[in-house]
Design a protein that fits this description.
Blueprint (H helix, E strand, L loop, with lengths): L1 H8 L3 H9 L3 H8 L5 H13 L3 E6 L7 H21 L5 E5 L11 H18 L4 E3 L7 H14 L4 E5 L5 H8 L5 E5 L14 H17 L3 E5 L3 H13 L8 E5 L4 H9 L3 E8 L4 H10 L1 H12 L3
Helix pairs in contact: 1-12, 5-6, 6-7, 8-9, 9-10, 12-13
Length: 308
Amino acid sequence: MLGPVILAASRSDRMRRFISAAPGTKQVVDRFIAGENVDHVLPVVRASVDKGLELTLDVVGEDITTPAEAAAARDAYLELVGRLKDLGLGTKAEMSVKLSMFGQALENGHELALANVRPVVEAAAAIGTTVTLDAEDHTTLDSMFAIHEELRKDFPQTGCVIQAYLFRTEDDARRLAAAGSRVRIVKGAYKEPASVAYQDKAEIDKAYVRIMKILMEGDGYPMIGSHDPRLVAIAQELGRQAGRKLDEYEFQMLYGIRSDEHIRLAAEGHRMRVYTAYGTDWYGYFMRRLAEKPANLLFFARSILTKG
């Protein structure tokens, strides 16, 4: 299984240096990362909106070691909100944030992350959009869900992410599938032990379907994060069975992956949101994309071998 090996490499400084220096890396990174800064990503936002798509924007970067770096991450998102407002794109693009970027792992990290993310959520609400809290490894989730609950007191549209491979997630889904909630379901892209997570792909897929059913039958707003054609079709059927209209749930897929499917689903009348990452600290995000799909790794390997 290459996935766990790649995920382990995502934490290695030595591998970070090697991959960053590889001749073919930029070609592959550009496939998944929309640019290095907000000026690069805004034309992508505009082009996507013109195609009938919506976006969730992620300023990549997780290795925060000081409160000053966490504050800088907050300010990067505030800059993004301001630029979306200037272009009148606020209602078409939400933000996805990893609380690790806002200082969650630092001393008094829970309080620091909440203090840093709150102004971003407030600014997003002011331009007609919202923020979704991304899920990270299982040790961070209780803090993430507590921050989510606190933010929803003032900003009930604040979303969160749940991961199908974790044993706990079906219970989390039942708790979260309430009126007004926004919940993105993904398979999961962190290296987790067998004590807390399914390790077999077939078991993960079965859990994903069970959780989708919980969300579709609940009173909240499901966001289906998957590129798997079979899971997309099952989601559509579960939506029909639950009596949901096409605008009462949405699909989310990654920038640079199955772009034709983005257009197809939008043309069918589905809300289709493209998860679009940008920034210079791309390594951890990039490695998880490689781990998720062997074809991505093959594409990367071929690029390295044909460059230089």
